[in-house]
Write a structure and sequence with these properties.
CATH class of the domain at 84-297 and 359-430: Alpha Beta
Bound molecules: zinc ion
Number of strands: 22
CATH superfamily of the domain at 84-297 and 359-430: Metal-dependent hydrolases
CATH architecture of the domain at 84-297 and 359-430: Alpha-Beta Barrel
Radius of gyration: 23 Å
CATH topology of the domain at 84-297 and 359-430: TIM Barrel
Helix content: 25-40%
């Protein structure tokens, strides 16, 4: 659906001459005129050279006529696409947002793990964010409160810090909830939704005690509330990937809940194809399920987490050399595994557990959108997906493998996430599109040059080939360079928000 603003008339004011005939007066000067770019809009299929006029943070004119702007971007030879939307972004520091922006991302949302307290998380970012931001309510933190291992008043709103505190309390993760605890969690989730959270996020690898019965409770709750669920479904150490995905389908089918299964690549592993078929089959039967992928064979892990224990390695037939230590970049041996478990403070790992053919299959599959799963960088080191995910899609799949058309790639990084979220986050109805009436979140890039540069050895190298990134009408990347100190990012609130 295209959005037209009532204010559109100011863009080209019509005056009546003395004879009553219409006379077109001199053109309106827009805040920004993006000239002669190849405008691509996945929703309408527009793929043509146009001039785009931006006024007050909105796209108000798309035309073949010359237009004037207080600022002018010559986009000849460049693609003018909707700003990229990352539904899976864990870290919202300035450092990481800068890398996201340089990768073309205009909105980044923490939906998998979620946050709590929601008001603290949003409140600390308003007015100080390069790109748009949003989050779900954290099922894990709310659950920790219900078990009494965390106190709501003591939570900082810095989710990774709070999660670490909760994770150190052993036991509650594996226990089942009582009806009373679920009722308490319902109330806390309600509170988070009221403060603007977009749905509920579940990381079942960390809370295996949340059994199917508990999940059905929250799926029922969310279906009633008409809010979505973002689920890192049960997997490693609990069930096979396909069984984990079946639980998602079963839950959505029984309750009518909307469920987004995060990172189908690292959750699907050797069963990625079967999981994709299952989810696609569910969609065809009218079940509200969706999924996403990040384009890397390495998952994030941590030496200090039970998921990277020797028992898990043995169970999944992984070798020590499949683990790469982020701080030094080296592949581990049994000896260095033991050593760094004692001596590496961050313990950050990249676990090389996926096959390239499964990543390709997932990226090229029609039901997947792209989400980075990017996390925090420690001393500038971390998984390259936080810096390179979106540009990598264009380099690897549009240019090199030629398995995605340019329009399909644009669709997977912008329109599909916006479409997935729009019923639950009203601000997404006007994002992910280059249309009159859309919000001016725009990524302008050279299709022949856009490329990721971050690697497993150097995960924080910014992407290249992206000329301009416009967030709510303001450039945060200009002439291929990051613009310091500009903070136009807006909060993305959910449909239950009472005070946006
Ligand atoms: Zn995950």
């Amino acid at each position: 659906m295209a959005y037209r603003l009532a204010t559109l008339t100011i863009a080209g004011s019509l005056l009546f001459g003395c004879g009553g005939e219409k006379v077109q007066t001199s053109e309106k000067t827009y805040d920004l005129a993006i000239m002669n770019g190849r405008v691509m809009d996945p929703e309408t299929g527009l793929d043509a050279v146009r001039n785009v006029g931006v006024l007050n943070g909105e796209i108000v004119s798309i035309s073949q006529q010359p237009i004037k702007g207080a600022k002018v971007i010559d986009a000849a030879g460049l693609v003018v696409a909707p700003g990229f939307i990352d539904m899976h972004a864990h870290d919202h520091s300035d450092f990481t947002h800068r890398l996201h922006a340089q990768d073309g991302v205009t909105s980044a949302l923490e939906l998998e793990s979620g946050v709590f307290p929601v008001d603290k998380w949003y409140g600390s970012r308003i007015g100080g964010s390069t790109i748009n931001f949003g989050a779900s309510v954290s099922h894990g933190l709310v659950r920790a409160i219900a078990f009494g291992v965390m106190k709501e008043a003591e939570l900082t709103g810095d989710t990774s810090q709070d999660e670490n505190v909760a994770a150190r309390q052993i036991g509650w993760q594996n226990q089942n909830t009582t009806l009373e605890q679920r009722a308490q969690m319902d109330a806390l989730i309600h509170k988070g939704l009221k403060y603007g959270a977009v749905g509920v996020g579940y990381h079942l690898a960390y809370t295996p005690g949340a059994d199917h019965e508990e999940m059905l409770h929250f799926y029922e709750f969310s279906a009633k509330e008409k809010v979505p669920n973002f689920v890192h479904y049960r997997s490693i150490g609990q069930v096979t990937p396909l069984e984990g995905a079946r639980e998602i389908i079963d839950g959505a089918e029984k309750t009518g809940a909307a469920i987004h299964a995060v990172h189908v690549n690292s959750s699907g592993l050797w069963q990625t194809r079967e999981v994709l078929e299952l989810l696609e089959g569910g969609q065809k039967r009218g079940i509200d399920v969706s999924t996403e992928v990040y384009p890397y064979t390495g998952a994030h892990a941590n030496l200090h987490s039970p998921i990277a224990s020797k028992e898990t390695l043995a169970r999944f037939k992984l070798d020590y050399s499949d683990l790469q230590l982020v701080s030094t970049g080296e592949r581990l041996t049994e000896k260095t595994y033991d050593y760094y478990k004692e001596h590496d403070a961050s313990g950050e790992l990249i676990a090389h557990v996926m096959k390239q053919e499964n990543i390709d299959l997932a990226v090229e599959h029609p039901i997947t959108s792209i989400g980075s799963d990017g996390g925090a960088y420690v001393d500038g080191k971390g998984h390259p997906r936080g810096a390179g995910t979106f540009s990598r899609i264009f380099r690897q799949y549009v240019r090199e493998r030629q398995t995605l058309s340019l329009m399909d790639a644009v669709k997977k990084v912008s329109y599909m996430p916006a479409k997935r979220l729009e019923n639950f986050a009203p601000a997404m109805k006007r994002r992910g599109r280059i249309q009159e009436g859309a919000i001016a979140d725009i990524t302008i890039f050279n299709a022949n040059e856009i490329a990721d540069q971050a690697t497993f050895a150097d995960g924080a190298l910014p992407s290249k080939g992206i000329a301009y990134v416009i967030v709510n009408g303001q450039a945060v990347v200009s002439d291929y360079k990051f613009v310091e100190g500009v903070k136009p990012g807006q909060p993305i609130y959910g449909n239950k928000a009472e005070q946006p």
